[in-house]
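Researcher: I'm comparing several assemblies side by side, and this is the next one on my list. It has 1248 residues spread over four chains. Same procedure as the others: predict the full complex and return the structure.
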Amino acid sequence: MPSLRDVLDEIVAEMAGYSDRGAVASYIPQLGKIDPNKFGIAVTLTNGEVLVAGDADEPFSIQSISKVFTLALALGRVGDTLWKRVGREPSGTPFNSIVQLEREEGIPRNPFINAGAIVVSDVLLAGHQPREAIGEIVSFVRSLADDDTIVVDGDVAGSERVTGYRNFALANYLKGFGNLNHAPELTLGVYFHHCAIAMNCQQLANAGRFLANAGRVPSSGHTVISSERAKRINALMLTCGHYDGSGEFAFRVGIPGKSGVGGGILAIVPGVASIAVWSPGLNARGNSMLGSIALEQLTKRMNWSIFSPKPA
Amino acid sequence: MPSLRDVLDEIVAEMAGYSDRGAVASYIPQLGKIDPNKFGIAVTLTNGEVLVAGDADEPFSIQSISKVFTLALALGRVGDTLWKRVGREPSGTPFNSIVQLEREEGIPRNPFINAGAIVVSDVLLAGHQPREAIGEIVSFVRSLADDDTIVVDGDVAGSERVTGYRNFALANYLKGFGNLNHAPELTLGVYFHHCAIAMNCQQLANAGRFLANAGRVPSSGHTVISSERAKRINALMLTCGHYDGSGEFAFRVGIPGKSGVGGGILAIVPGVASIAVWSPGLNARGNSMLGSIALEQLTKRMNWSIFSPKPA
Amino acid sequence: MPSLRDVLDEIVAEMAGYSDRGAVASYIPQLGKIDPNKFGIAVTLTNGEVLVAGDADEPFSIQSISKVFTLALALGRVGDTLWKRVGREPSGTPFNSIVQLEREEGIPRNPFINAGAIVVSDVLLAGHQPREAIGEIVSFVRSLADDDTIVVDGDVAGSERVTGYRNFALANYLKGFGNLNHAPELTLGVYFHHCAIAMNCQQLANAGRFLANAGRVPSSGHTVISSERAKRINALMLTCGHYDGSGEFAFRVGIPGKSGVGGGILAIVPGVASIAVWSPGLNARGNSMLGSIALEQLTKRMNWSIFSPKPA
Amino acid sequence: MPSLRDVLDEIVAEMAGYSDRGAVASYIPQLGKIDPNKFGIAVTLTNGEVLVAGDADEPFSIQSISKVFTLALALGRVGDTLWKRVGREPSGTPFNSIVQLEREEGIPRNPFINAGAIVVSDVLLAGHQPREAIGEIVSFVRSLADDDTIVVDGDVAGSERVTGYRNFALANYLKGFGNLNHAPELTLGVYFHHCAIAMNCQQLANAGRFLANAGRVPSSGHTVISSERAKRINALMLTCGHYDGSGEFAFRVGIPGKSGVGGGILAIVPGVASIAVWSPGLNARGNSMLGSIALEQLTKRMNWSIFSPKPA
């Protein structure tokens, strides 16, 4: 087995050589300005070790990766009753598709497509003002990463608010089916803000540790969620974490992961590591092009795929 | 950790107590006659040990489970060019849906939905008479299971031929899009026959060993497929192996698995075990109801989910 | 040929005998309060004669019938460039479906489904405040009916605003595809208000006269639209005027018509008559149940179907 | 009003000037060989007069136009019970779409899309051998046209049989839903043969006379169907006769019509005329490009649209 340090350095070097780096998301204006040549990666091992390479300390917009954290928080809040309002199946359609919602009468297929994550935001808004709910989400992410400097990028949040017509459509549609308890603009306020959380790879890898460690933050020993629930969130990330490219990600990379249109991916090797990778250019499915390739190389060289036997 | 022997015995006892056992598939007349009270399970460990419980030596129709074997065989035949004709994404629609085919112009979403498996059969038919292609598939399965008594149930194959109108529709539709090289009735002849292979749990668990063991049959050391390919088939089983219930199976059971409407499930714990379970009654998604529950209990008690950390 | 007077009286008598009168629309609270036993009909002949029967002088909410008037007004405003933003085909889906919009990238199938009518409202809003646009629509309808007492029912308009989530979804979706020039809430303000225009059968039949008379109001001789455009609006009413029940209406009634969920239908016999019928209970397709039956009887007894030969 | 003779001559002259004539259907090999420069038109007035122009005496494959005749024949055979197996609504999807069938569980939307016409063929096959059923259809068409020389083009029928995979898919799909009483290949044998009937414009216009004349053949006085049924078939032609271009045809041409991929259109002016036009090139919706334009010009110049007032 090669050393992880060497593998990360090799990957950073290889990624620098790619000329086709995908297209930076342009539908959120603030994201369109990011330099496509950025590439960073961070690995937090469950033994506490952290390795970084490339632009791992540069903050980016985590976007849909935040849905992993809001899901964990919402399950803590309402438990498995959440699943009355959201499904657990891959969608078979693009991330912002509304077709499935009509066919299945307002129940989003999973918590990682936009409609499902909006319902999760709605759960987190219960009994709160939007500002409070956003504050709780940020506090939760800070505690997971053990880093109080993590904040919402207000420009990005504002930018989504203005251009997020399809999300407004989804929220109103959910409301029309009775699957939204608050006014669409309030729930979307929460949604847009948690998507606009900015983190660098190191912070993000740290924030994901609990999923690699049966629900507990290794450094503090704090139990965030039960091991059962950690296992299940990992399963959802594997089957639904990359929108309509989830099958491909499982096929090539072979570990649970959640991508965001900011170009980040959070990936989990259960029992071993939490990984954050970032490269702003996206592939045709809306997932980080180089991020996916880098993770494929990493799991291959380290034999980290959950679909491979491990040496005893 | 409890002993596997005890766990299997407990599970058989628990399953006997279920009164709601799902509905036996009735659309294939021969399957509709099976006693819904049957329940069997077999586990073949990669160290060669085999444990069985319940009706593990009673043959049943493996149906769609055969698609795992034909996929492995076809990949051996044509390699990754197969993926030009079949996708690798969960479908988001029922197993026999034709809607997705129209939207995606004749490319089935994955090799485990009917349309995808029909394309795989078409690959295996190349250069052969149907009878030869069927013979090769049966030989392949026999060699995997190291058991020359495995045969096609001719009654079941004939039964599918007569009633398989939706499969004829799919095959003709594929042909209309140019994604079938042979006459629909010839390709379906192969498809119906491999679906009608009869095996008992012990044979099926043995046949799946290579997937738990990086592509090699542990007993003989014979390499069936590369470790890379075994890993990827496992990933496909996880994301697509239970039709539109694949997300739920991953969420609850947490290991790669492929179900059949005969009530069987083949499941893989990479590096550890190949499992076959059989109970004829199906749940709403068309997967064995008690089989799914039994596997959920088994992976939970043995900590076999691939989404959980393993003790060092 | 029987006398129209007799036929109308017979129809009113027959309709009184129906116990199954359909279901009053409940999704707009104000509409849910209407007495389902109401039935009215008015016929304005192109020769100026007006015949009424039943509750023909009781105002009701014209709802989607208003889309005929806004279409005529918008065509006057922007001409055939409207058809770049809206199609002219039956939708094959329910009136408030969003599926078609996704498939056809934001171009509604026709101006009578909700999405299409929202685009028409958007056209009428150009260069105006919503209040002004609403004022122009009401003025136009008053001039068509030659009746200055016609007004918007503010309670109904407010009621739609609060509960119209699916329409908000549609408007945001259109906006996301770039097919809405104004803010969704402004365009919907116009839309909800014109749907909330209240008219009685007599007023409505008068307002429709120009469509039966090659675009000219017979009483005043005023040309509202060209005869070519009147012909084409009639064609659209025939193919698309009853949502996913348009084929059935053409099959049974055989004249252009536009229904509203308030239970009204405006129907046109080109060259002969403009007809308004009202009965609040709706059939499964969302069209007035008794209104449809009454019109079927009327066209049959008067030989008014456009699909039948006329005596020389 | 100009003379019909002059109008037809003008139209033929104008059509000769078109360089963009659409694309000749290529999916049926025999049709792909037709000269795209052909153009013919024939008008049979209800008074018995027949006017022809252009290539009106050259036979072409009537294809889907035959569905009008099989519908009339099937309604005569089983009456309105036919409507339990076929709907009466425009489909909103292409002519050979299978999507709608899945959503609506095997009930085709109307008798003019392929699936619906296959069900109609299945009705006509009841109690017959395919050869007999085909014979009855041809006899019926001959009697309508009063011309015993009309035959099925065997080459075209054979050609469809070989390449008609999507129709085989539709037939098997219908069978899977229990909406086909005979073996798919038998029903399709009937279907392919009636689609392969060859007629020239003059014969076709004659064959359609009964629809313009309240169900009676004017020359013989023979009642083919009731006036009620003729009216309703006309309505279906208007709403569903041009596949997913029916709305456009109603909008531009304004009379009932049924097109075929051979480039023919049969159109009806109730009480006035039966019209057959032929030009092999098709527009994007699969309807004769010049045929549609010619009919638009004809109805405009003769004021034949059913959506326009007629002078007293």
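Model: For your comparison table: Strands of chain A lie at 23-24, 40-45, 50-54, 60-61, 151-152, 197-199, 257-259, 264-269, 273-278, 281-282.
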